[in-house]
Amino acid sequence: MNNFTQRAITGAVFVATVIGLSLWSAYSFMALLIIIAAVAMWEFYALLGIQSVAQKLLCIGLGLAMITSKYWFDSALLVLPLAFPLIAISVLFSQQRSFKTLAILATAILYIALPLSLMHFSVFSISGHYQAVLAINLFTLIWCSDTFAYLSGKLLGQRKLFPSVSPGKTWEGVIGGMILTGIAAYGLGILWQIPVQVNAVIGILTVVFGTLGDLVESMLKREVNVKDSGSILPGHGGMLDRFDALLLSLPFTTACYWWMMYH
Fold first, then answer.
1. pTM (2 decimals)?
2. Checking DSSP bridges between strand 160-162 and strand 166-170, what pairing results, if any?
């Protein structure tokens, strides 16, 4: 099996799984977010040399506790004040006793678990019950952003965006991705009965902050000199590779959604 075929099969199974779990029920969607968070956090800690299984499980457990309730203020805001003291104590009594270890352990919760808890909360935010279309909308916009930016860059790319971090990205790719994703978001808003102006802005924000999210993860991988964050998705790398754009964009898209819907 060549690399292209492997990537295509993995991509198709991956998309079908994400959409299927999002559509099935609120519980399967929560399970999807739990899997994404747990695997991505494990990959993050492996990249940065955290060796203690107990510490990794503690932080992943804290992260998952933030995701497992649709009532964000009852989960994330309860866990966040406890997270730093618990992690600090675990580091104090560990072999890797340093503030660098403490910072790495805490960062994964803010970088990975917190945005996914916002996503879980946002799909319940208006009606009070699970709305699968809101979840699928966010996933679809990320895929549109990646695809349209890639195609625009291939066809029109001339000016490098951030060559020291990601040599392949261009300004033309980002701008083309922004325009096309904004148009797609407008159409998806009509299809799924999401306010179209809101969704168009969310689509543009997804491209802007999703691109930055990809660059942030590229910066991390360059620092530790690896190509992929993991190998769980053959041909596509790790879970963190697949969701880096979503993770950084979620705080902005969630805030935009709330502000535009309630003002």
1. 0.90
2. antiparallel
